[in-house]
Amino acid sequence: MAVAGTDNRPDRSQSQAALGRHARYVGRVGALAVALGIGLALGSAAVASADTDETTSSDTSTDGAKADRADSAGSRGPAATKVGPPRFGAGAKKLRSGKFSDSLAGHSAAAGDESSKPEVGTDGAAASTGSTSKSRATTSRTTRKYAEPDRPRGHRAGSPSRSQRSAPDTDAAKDTTQTDSSASGPTPQAPTAGTTGKKPPASSLISLAPKERNVAVEAPAVSNDNQFSAAALDITTTGSPASSPTPPARRVGDVPDPAAAVNNFILLFIGNGTATHPDAGLLIGNGFSYTAETCPDGKVCNGGRSGLIGVGGAGFNGGTGGSTLLFGNGGAGGSGVAWANSGNGGHGGHGGLFLGTGGDGGAGAAGVAGVNGGDGGAGGRGGNSGAFALFAQAGNGGAGANGGNGATTTESGASGAAGIAGGRGGNGGNGGSVGLFAIFATAGAGGAGGAGGNGGNGGDGVHGTTATTAGEAGGAGGNGGDGGAGGQGGDGGAGGRGPLIVLRAGRTGDGGDGGDGGAAGSPGNGGAGAHGDAGHLDGGAGGNGGNSGAAGSGGTGGSGTVGGANGVGGASVTAAGGHGGRGGDGHSTTDAGIDGGRGGNGGDGGNLGNGGDGGHGGNASSGRGGAGGDGGDGTIDNAATTSDVTGGRGGNGGHSTTNSAGDGGDGGAAVNAGTGSALGGAGGNGGNSNGDTNTAGAGDGGAGGDATITGASSATSTAIGGAGGNGGTAERGAGGIGGDGGDATVDNTESAANVSGGKGGTGGRGGFHTSGSGGHGGAGGDATTSGLGSVTGGVGGVADGRGSNGDSGNGGNGGNATITNTTSTAAATGGAGGGGGRRHRRRRRQFQLRPAESGPRRQRRLSPVGGPGNRHRRRRRKWRKR
């Protein structure tokens, strides 16, 4: 349609020709662009470029060319006032910019009245005819490039959109006239492509979005006579009349990146792998190798596969290596991690079919206590070489990891915890195989097995608590924890299969060494018992000592070309420990009719401890004295121990003022399986009595403890039975009986220890003021050996009793001495018996006055009746008869 305000008709012939040339040009360029995979971006650029070139060639030709066209046109007006339909893409009715709007308004006015209104150029001032044509062409190029970025592909520039064609046009919009540019000139702007005539830089193929523009400054209000409104360009103008509805603008970001599409197409066949896409192209390229920087945390990353030609990528965190198809080496397997695949290493990738080595398997992860049972991870399998790779090397198997060491733990207030067993060493990975007909290829060697972990040490037992409440027993000592067993060594991996003709397989890996056992834990001592009080007369027993733990055994070595060595057993406890606690003393009282408290028994020693001493009996005023507590037994059951062991001593009996005294406690036995001595505990002494009656006797002494040696003790060691306790003394009653000595025994035929029976206790003395009898002496202990040492029986106790009218005590019998080993040449000596007691009676003497037979004075002479005087008198009588 013609522009309003002019009578000129459009030049249809030249416009149709231009459109034809333009269509052919666009078709050729567009087809080429689509073939290259970037038709979308270059297609839009081709339309704009063709339209710009056509406009420039038509409107910016030389004056001579314009004159020729004007002459041939016939009825056409001057070139400066030529008005015709808008060229394809020129967008004569589309608002490009404020400057182009001013130019269009000036051009329309000039077409209506050329003589009265001057033309307006791109800078808003009056311009010549030639400058007007040039400005319009430049402005058309600039505005098309930057004002139409969202035009759909294949949509002709300057034509209305589908929604605009369907929307009705109002008469008010058609009749709206342009505002004279001279009345309201455009805002001054910085030089642009439209003003300078320079072509703006081409847009990037990656980003086709136009640069941001200050639309409020550059786009003044226009009429709706244009086919593309400001709203269609997503431009907000002030004071614009209502326009027809427009479709939503198409975003440039929604268009796929053509460069990326081409790159992806190429990478499908040629290119190296990346962290996000580790596999290489199908034809040529290396697989991606992961590292600590590229492999995400907590992930197992497999190496990328190569193409037909290339190198496989290395795995990480136990991932497998990438393989190669035809030519290239396989990737190495990643080293194992404890938290994935049981700590196993990744397998190596396979080499190319015709050329390339197999990747080595990854090493296993070291065992960690509490994870996978502490076992070390197995090594990964080596990759195979190609079937036709004649000189290739197959991958070696990965080494198995060492098992984790067992932990040592202790628990407060209880026995020591057992040490955790060491983890098993991981098996070595198998070596990779070669092609059956690759006679020069070398098969991969198997990986070495990992060493077993060492067992953890047993925890030490804690000491028993000392009782604080009257009569309460002492706490038992804690047992030592057992040492953990050493882990088994891993087996070596099998070698890879060799070629069929040569039958040369890879070397089998060596076995791993077994782990060492953990040390045993030491025992704790028993706590002491509490003494009695008025509310609880008897003393508390001593706590028993704890036992030592057992040492852990060593692990077995793994199998292989060279088998692994067996582990060494853990150290046992050799020092004495775990002694029994002492018994508490009985309570002494002065209350009438209340007996003294009994002493508490001593606690037994553990397997390496001495027995605890018994507590003393409590004294009493009118009641009986309390008995002493028995000594605890001592024991050593470790043959490697050199310490002596002692039985606990019996407690003494309590005294009584007016009643019977308490008996002494027995001594504890001693047993030694090591190389030290065994000493039986001595019996406690009987208590003394000051009773006023014959029945108020003294206390008897306790028996001595037995001593036994079962180990291969040396000649410097001895087994001595405990001595019996002495009987108590009575002021008016019978004296106490001495305790028997303890027996001594050696059971080991290789032992050279000497043996001695215990000495019997001395009998107590009877009362002086009454007819109390003296106490008997205790018997000596027997001595017996099956070994090579000397033997001596115990000496019997002496009867030291004497009373005014009572019987004397008997002496104790001596101990026997016995040797059962027929090869022994040692002496055996029996013990001497104890001496009997003497009966001491008070002799009453009778004095009489006899007169002298002659002499001037009478003399008094006192002679005891039945004394020497009487005997002499009897002799004289006998002499006279003769």
Automatic annotation (TrEMBL):
The keyword Translocase does not apply. Residues 472-498, 508-556, 594-634, 722-742, 757-781, 790-815 have a biased composition (Gly residues). Residues 837-847, 870-882 have a biased composition (Basic residues). The keyword Lyase does not apply. The chain crosses the membrane at residues 29-48. Keywords: Membrane, Transmembrane, Transmembrane helix. Residues 121-141, 166-197, 816-829 have a biased composition (Low complexity). Residues 47-204, 460-556, 573-672, 722-882 are annotated as: Disordered. This is PE-PGRS family protein. It comes from Mycolicibacterium smegmatis (strain ATCC 700084 / mc(2)155).
